[in-house]
Amino acid sequence: MAALGLFWAVAGAAVAVFLAGAGSAMGVGIAGQAAAGVVSEDPDRFAQVLIMQLLPGTQGIYGLLVGFITLAKIGLLSGSPVAMDLNTGLMIFAACLPIGVCGLISGKFQGQTSAASIGIVAKKPDQFGKAMLFPAMVETYAILALLISILAVNNIPV
User: Fold this and answer.
1) Which region, left, alpha or beta, applies to residue 80 given φ > 0 means left and ψ of -120 to 50 means alpha?
2) Rounded (10°) CA dihedral 142, 146, 148, 153
3) What confidence tens digit (pLDDT) does each residue in 53-84 have?
4) pTM value?
């Protein structure tokens, strides 16, 4: 049974990394398409639209962070995995879900919001600061999910 608990804990780390990373990949891709269109018309907007394109990439970083924290907690990074029962493994798996699922969803929607904000920058470059606020609002929910996953993983006794 100890191997089954460890399996679920590793699966939780994987879910955090894979889902949040997929959300970031989608979001960065969506924003990148809009950014490429703007830069093809006005190469001077490159730096502004690049910043907007990078915003959805944070969800993947958050998922990676939770993955590392989880793997360190269960001893895989040190090469000495801890024995844990099935319930503990499932709790760790559940603790990784918030950043995985929220990272997937918010990464995609932040990419869409970034693409819309890139449109603002294309038409009114002086409104860059205001345009940044729209995708930043989506980021708030990824940060909340990151916090709950970190708190939950760190407070599950193994």
Assistant:
1) beta
2) 150
3) 999 999 999 999 999 999 999 999 999 999 99
4) 0.93
